[in-house]
Specification:
Two copies of one chain form a homodimer. Chain A is of the alpha/beta class and about 350 residues long. Chain A has eleven helices and twelve strands. In chain A, helix 1 packs across helix 9, helix 5 packs across helix 6 and helix 10 packs across helix 11. The complex binds 3-isopropylmalic acid (2 copies). Chains A, B: Its EC number is 1.1.1.85. Chains A, B: Belongs to the isocitrate and isopropylmalate dehydrogenases family. LeuB type 2 subfamily.
């Protein structure tokens, strides 16, 4: 019998609740001879308040010994903004070199979009995950005074851009429409923007069948609401990807359904799967949170580990559940329904 | 008789066509004793190709002698991305210290939104115009090689943030709902984000009647499509403002209706008014472009110069025209219809 060593970081707020359902579905989807060895890590606001730690080096070391990480949600109003985000979530993404931040934008049949006219939406955003304005490079001068100056430095390397761009081309090449859109703001952020554009064009020569285009990030937001069908694969920078994927979640029925994978394709470090939504402290502990985004993240985890058929089964279960959804269900009711479909 | 010294920069593509209609409406709206002394400046792609110049110092000097600038659109595919944007449009915004980039997001009755359920949208974005990632600070190392590194530095000052934040509070305080939302990404861009947040809270103490809240930029995009009614006044950084105002234009019926003002409230330099849309080379010269965004920018220009009643008249003309719009009209037909309403 094989085993899947899974690190689980439920985190804050609704994280605990949605991860529990994700694990149920994972168990139900895996072949009978695969045993999940799940180790839970208590990280997030509680630990920070108790010990002052966000991600101790010893935990980071231990996490390396796993096949994948499932994360619920990080963040709580009691912790100053940025502490957990930078000290835990982004620290993991950077430490494990999660340079492919994969975020599908798919409107499932039966799900209501806030857009009029039931658009046909099925794209995937390949967001760079280890560079750009997210590197944490910057600082302040004359801090706290009326003469304060604050900087944020976006760092972009040919190496870092090329690997994510190539990954995006491969994905586009393997999809029926074979279309790839680069989103940046190369008319204003000319240094980073021209580097992205140059590499996008260079790598494109390896993929003659992929049709490409370019959009400024501001224009891209317009198309997300007026013509989302136009997108197939999108590749973009860390910050633009952050913004666009929340917008993508909104137009595909909300953040309760949006999955993501923080992927290191080399396999040197575990990849991490998490719903795009946050910890939603306002509804935490009430069994109200929709675990679907976590379950779809579990499908991405399965796919990443080579359980392709199992991943498809989970996605199909979600699709069927969404198509027939009626009435309000609790977090575990949704989880149980998905388990039943996956097992059935 | 008084005179209004207006610098006109039609620019590229549809710029020429829409500015012509804007000027017609301006003439019709002003009191009979005010004479428009319009000077046209040939700037943009044509001039760049002819002379290599984007904005000569002598022209910048001359522009200073005007009460305001009306700009059509800048940009053409024949010019490398960034050259005209940085060398002309942004150069003007920075040289004339246009720190208040004002962009209303209003869904006029009769206009179709891509959002389902006919939402009630009436907010204004106060975008910082002279700082942030737009400063042009950055560069490349090992340019053109596989080891290239490119940086973009966002510069943010207490001075620069405070003036735009105070302006936004004043605007919020003068509106019925008195609500102000700060949008940033202070959980990731912690240096700039915390500076924005600190100043937002400090200045807020001068405006006890204004209700405030804070949204990360990614979450803000969600609310723009799921709950745009929640916004009254939004204040944000230069880049986030760029992105959000294109999205705002999209949800309020499209970029053909979105107006903007690049304002220097000190009056030391002329403020500049321009539609948010670009030069749209694909439809240029065909008399197809909707001049409404330019006409609404003219209303903002009138307001800025103290012609409050005249500004209201122009906005009312646009509202009436939009409410009754039927069938396809040419650029000048729309302009003529607005002139008739303003004069009538
Ligand atoms: C919580 C935050 C640091 C994070 C990000 O900005 O990447 C989140 O918004 C996301 O999209 O995963
Ligand atoms: C053309 C470009 C430089 C400009 C900007 O980014 O500010 C435009 O998008 C705008 O919003 O006015």
């Amino acid at each position: 019998s094989r085993s899947l060593r899974l690190a689980v970081i439920p985190g804050d707020g609704i994280g605990q609740e949605v991860v529990a359902e994700g694990l149920k579905v994972l168990g139900a989807a895996l072949p009978a001879d695969v045993k999940v060895e799940a180790t839970e890590y208590d990280l997030g606001a509680r630990r920070y308040h108790r010990t002052g730690e966000t991600l101790p080096d010893s935990v980071l070391e231990e996490l390396k010994g796993h096949d994948a990480i499932l994360l619920g949600a990080i963040g709580d109003p009691s912790v100053p903004s940025g502490v957990l985000e930078r000290g835990l979530l982004l620290k993991l993404r950077f430490a494990f070199d999660h340079h492919i931040n994969l975020r599908p934008g798919k409107l499932f049949p039966g799900v209501k979009s806030p857009l009029a006219g039931e658009p046909d939406i099925d794209f995937v955003v390949v967001r760079e995950g280890t560079e750009g304005p997210y590197v944490g490079n910057g600082g302040t001068l004359r801090t706290g005074t009326e003469h304060e100056v604050a900087t944020e430095v976006s760092l972009n390397t040919a190496y870092g851009i090329e690997r994510v761009v190539r990954d995006a081309y491969r994905r586009a090449d393997s999809r029926p429409r074979k279309k790839l859109t680069l989103v940046h703001k190369n008319n204003v952020l000319v240094h980073a923007g021209h580097l992205w554009t140059r590499i996008f064009q260079q790598v494109g020569q390896e993929f003659p069948e992929v049709t490409t285009d370019y959009l400024h990030v501001d224009a891209a937001t317009i198309f997300f609401v007026t013509q989302p069908e136009r997108f197939d694969v999108i590749v973009t920078d860390n910050l633009f990807g952050d913004i666009l994927t929340d917008l993508a979640a909104a137009v595909t029925g909300g953040i309760g359904l949006a999955a993501s994978g923080n992927i290191n394709p080399s396999g040197d470090f575990p990849s991490m799967f998490e719903p795009v939504h946050g910890s939603a402290p306002d509804i935490a502990g009430q069994g109200k949170a929709d675990p679907t985004a976590t379950v779809l993240s579990v499908a991405m985890l399965l796919e990443h580990l080579g359980f392709t058929a199992e991943a498809a089964k989970v996605e199909a279960a979600v699709a069927a559940d969404l198509a027939e959804r009626a009435g309000v269900r609790s977090t575990s009711q949704v989880g149980d329904a998905l388990v039943a479909r996956v097992s059935g």
